[in-house]
Amino acid sequence: MILYEYPFNERIRTYLRLEHLFLRLGELVARETPLDHHYALTTIFEIMDVATRADLKSDVLKDLEKQKQVLNSYRGNPAISEDVLDQVVGRLEHCFSALSGLPGKAGQSLTENDWLMSVRSRAVIPGGTCEFDLPAYFAWQHKSVDTRHADLQAWTSTLKPLAESIRMLLKMLRDSGSPQKVVAAGGQFQQPLPQGRTFQLLRLRIDPALNLIPEISGNRLLVSVRLMRLAPDTRLHPCGDDAAFELTLCS
Questions:
Q1: What is the pLDDT of residue 227?
Q2: Helices 34-51, 114-123: crossing angle, 10 deg rounding
Q3: Quick one: which of 103, 182, 204, 207 has the fewest CB in 10 Å?
Q4: Element housing 82 (H / E)
Q5: Distance between CA atoms of residues 132 and 67, nearest Å
Q6: Cα dist. 31→4, 27, 38, 155 in Å?
Q7: pLDDT single digits (tens) 75-132
């Protein structure tokens, strides 16, 4: 099954982008070739571009505190395991203290590294990190795998509190939804959203064998999905057939 996710607000959109970048970064750092480590660095720069947004850190801290308050309200409920509740609340508190302990914006300490910033300024230029432009960076790429790994681990360590917080918040958000099987009649699906309830994320799973691509749109009142098919001319065309998929609304 292919999973598509659609955020209903800009804050969740930012969280999903950061999660995507952190997953990519984790894969690239673990590899050994200089080329992989080059793209690990450019991914760090992308994360910095997103993470240095003025209100991101405060948004994440507010969401962590909100989730902790919601969970604490379940204490004393006989249907809730106190041990599991303590574990989840403990992880939220750990994320909160680690992130709030970072000085300034997330990733700000990396901006004080002149060598990194010289690479960052050239990385946005096509071919701008050639050896004649950045000989020091070219020399770094020829260092041992262990040395490059150690440097990358040191640089990414300042971003880990944000990565862990985003991962925790998105997991809790995803777990809040209940999947339902639906059918798009003639390739079209619409579902009114209940009044008085705010959803933040839509998750859609569809069988790749159907060869269909969902175009999702939504607001606080309505969710709409149009199923498209990639034709041999490389253009998307509406699907006129009935097709089933799994839909989850998370709040």
A1: 94
A2: 90
A3: 103
A4: helix 82-100
A5: 51
A6: 27, 7, 11, 16
A7: 777 777 888 888 898 999 999 999 988 887 877 889 899 999 999 999 999 999 999 9
